[in-house]
Amino acid sequence: MKMKDTKGDILNAAERLFAARGPHATSLRQIISSAKVNLAAVHYHFGSKESLMQAVMSRRLVPLNAERLALLEEQERAHGRRVVPLAKVLTALVGPALRLSRNPKKGGVVFMQLLGRCFMEPDPKIQAMLDQQLQEVAGRFIPALQRAVPKLPEEDFFWRIHFLVGAMAHTMADAERLRTFSGGRCNPDDTEAMIDHLVNFLSAGFKAKSR
Amino acid sequence: MKMKDTKGDILNAAERLFAARGPHATSLRQIISSAKVNLAAVHYHFGSKESLMQAVMSRRLVPLNAERLALLEEQERAHGRRVVPLAKVLTALVGPALRLSRNPKKGGVVFMQLLGRCFMEPDPKIQAMLDQQLQEVAGRFIPALQRAVPKLPEEDFFWRIHFLVGAMAHTMADAERLRTFSGGRCNPDDTEAMIDHLVNFLSAGFKAKSR
DNA sequence: GCCTGATTCAAACGTACGTTTGAATGAAGG
DNA sequence: CCTTCATTCAAACGTACGTTTGAATCAGGC
C-alpha cells in the first residue's frame, strides 16, 4: 500500500517553484528535491522540462477556462436576448482566476501567481502555450465585452482589453506586494473584495468616453 | 584612433537581449557575441552579470525618473495652490516611460520593453533594484495622485495604483502584441495615442465611485 | 514461481553557464 | 626606449543544467 503519487508530487512541486522563481529560473533538480523523487522520473512521466511546464498549466487552466465559459453562458442565459452588463462579463472573466487563491485544491494562490507571471513571460514557447489555452475563452468573451460597450470604437476597445490583461495579470502575479506597499490598508486575502475592486476599476475604464 | 566603446557596446547589446528574452534567459556569451567583444570585458567593466543588469537599468532609469519628477513639478508650478488634475499627474507618470519608444537615443522601444518586464520579474534582486530606483518617484507621485482624487478611500486608492502599475507595465512590455491581437486596429507605434488611451482608461478607473 | 511491463534509481552524458587567470596589446609619459 | 597602466584576448576553471542510460525494483497475471 505504498500508493506514492510520483506524477502528482512532481506537478505540485513544479507548480510551487515555477510560481515562486519563474519557470526559467527553476531547475529540475530543485523540483525533484522538493518532491522527493528521482531525477529521471520527470522525463519518464513528462518527457521534458517544457512538457512538464505544459502539464502544470493544463491541469489548472482547463477547468479554470471551463468555469469562465460556464459563468458567461449562465449570464447570457439569465439575460435572454438582452445584453449582459459589462460588470457581469468582467466578473465571469477575472473572478474565476482571482478566486483560485481561495481554493488550495486548485493550486491556490500559487497557481494564480504562476498564471499571472506567464502573461509576462518572454519565452515564445510559453506564450504559444498560453495563447492556445486562451483561444476559446478569448473567442467567447471578446464579443460579449463588445456587446456590453457597443458605442466604443474598436480601437479604444482593444486598447482597453490590453490594459485589462495587464491589470489582471499583475494582480494575479503580485497581489501580495500590495499588502506592504499599501501599508496594510489593502488585504489581498479578501478575494471577493479584490475581485470587486478590479471589476469596478475595469468597468469604469471601459465605460470612459473615447477621445 | 580606434575609439572603440566596449563598455557602451556591451550595455547596448545587453539591453537589447535582456529585453527580448529576459535577463535570466540571456547569457553573457550571447551578449558578447552580439557586441563583438571579449567575454572577460564584461567582468572587467562591470564586475558581474548582475552589476551589468543594474548598469543597463540605471543608464535609462535615472534620466527617465528625473523627467517624470520634472514634469510633475512643472504641473504643480503651473497650478499654484490648486490641485493638479488627475490626468496631468498620470501623464507625467506614464508619458515619459511610454515615450521612450520614440527616442532611440534613450533605448527606444527596447528599453521600454525591458522596464515593463522588470516589473513582473520574480527575481528578488531585480525587484530590490527597481524598488530603489522608483522610491523617489513613488514618494512624489502618490501624494499628488491622492490629492487628485481626494474623496477616494485609501483602500480603493492603493488597489487602483496596483492596477495602474499592471496596465502600464504590460503596455510597456508588450504593446507590440496588441497590433496583431487587434487585427491591426491598434498601432503601438503611435506613442501619443497610446499615452492618451492609457491615461484616459486610468483616469476613468481612478474616478470610479467606490463601493 | 516466474514472467512481464511499468516504475524507480544511481550514475553518467554532453553542453552551457558565470567567472577567473595570465599573457598579449596598445597608447601615453618620462 | 623603456616603463606604466588600462584594456583586450584566448583559454581554462568549476559548477549546474537538461537529458539519457541501463540496471534494480515492484506489482499483478498466468
Show the helix and strand layout:
2 copies of one chain form a homodimer.
Chain A: H1 6-21, H2 28-35, H3 39-45, H4 49-78, H5 86-99, H6 108-120, H7 124-148, H8 154-181, H9 191-207
Chain A binds a DNA duplex (30 and 30 nucleotides) through helix 3.
Summarize the structure in words.
Two copies of one chain form a homodimer. Chain A is an all-alpha fold and 211 residues long. Chain A has a domain at 61-207: Tetracycline Repressor, domain 2. Helix content of chain A is 75%, strand content 0%. In chain A, helix 1 (6-21) crosses helix 2 (28-35). Chain A is globular and about 60 Å long. The first copy, chain A, starts with 5 loop residues before the first helix and ends with a helix. At the A-B interface, helix 6, helix 8 and helix 9 of A face helix 6, helix 8 and helix 9 of B. Chain A binds a DNA duplex (30 and 30 nucleotides) through residues 2, 6, 27-29, 37-45, 48-49.
Reported CATH architecture of the domain at 61-207 in chain A: Orthogonal Bundle
What is the string of SSEs of chain A from the N terminus onward?
A: HHHHHHHHH
Low-confidence stretches of chain A: none
Distance between the termini of chain A: 68 Å
Helix- and strand-based class of chain A? mainly alpha
What's the CATH H-level superfamily name of the domain at 61-207 in chain A?
Tetracycline Repressor, domain 2
The CATH topology of the domain at 61-207 in chain A comes to Tetracycline Repressor, domain 2
The radius of gyration computed from the alpha-carbon positions of chain A, rounded to a whole number of angstroms, is: 19 Å
Global mean pLDDT of chain A = 94
Q: What's the multimeric state? A: homodimer
Spatial shape of chain A: globular
CATH class of the domain at 61-207 in chain A: Mainly Alpha
Residues in helix, % of chain A: over 70%
Strand % of chain A is under 5%
The tally of strands of chain A reads 0
